[in-house]
Amino acid sequence: MRAFPHRTAPAALAALAALALVAAAPASAAPTDATGPVLTAGGAAVAVGDALAAPLTAGASATFYSTATSTTGVTCATSQLNSTVLTNPTAPGTATESLTGLTFDSCTANVTGVTSVQSLSVDTLPYGLTVDDGAGLPVTLTGGSAGQIQATAVLNSWFGTITCTYQLSGAFTGTADNGGNSLTFGNEHFAKSGGDGLCPADGYFSAAYGPVTDTGQAGSPAVTVN
Fold it and tell me: 0.85 exceeded by the pTM?
């Protein structure tokens, strides 16, 4: 059999090397299963039992307006969200939390007849909170053992103090954002469930909280959804 000319050896070796690389590529490029948890902070897993906290995002307000498109109602310059982590499974999955606090301060109202806001509060805590690492990073808030999600506004008016109570109508859903380590809720609908006749029939709650931090870790690093 005729031997290959010596000058073709480098080309033959290069071809063999290329074939070897092609054969090896699928194994090295194959996706691996996610092994990290749904929630991390500072590069570490958020531990079950850790307390998470978040103020309003910079420059944001929490609002409780009478319709989904109006700017009439109550605006709060300060609000704080607090929760405790219940489960933090391996991604992909859903982390669960207990919402233990949602407070509001520095509130004002632009409702005709209302002179000031004594308080805006959420009742029947704690609530359930889930964070899903699926498309859009959906966040869901649900009522707990003490009852469904409820908000109460105590207002000073031309006619004295009035109290307005609202209960959630439908789902309370939002989204997480890793860019700002935040949670955003928009136009969550509440229906009047009790109180003075001067109270609006509906309330629509909107707020953005962040950065969400893990106060159970040193330095309270920001929380990321994986």
Answer: no
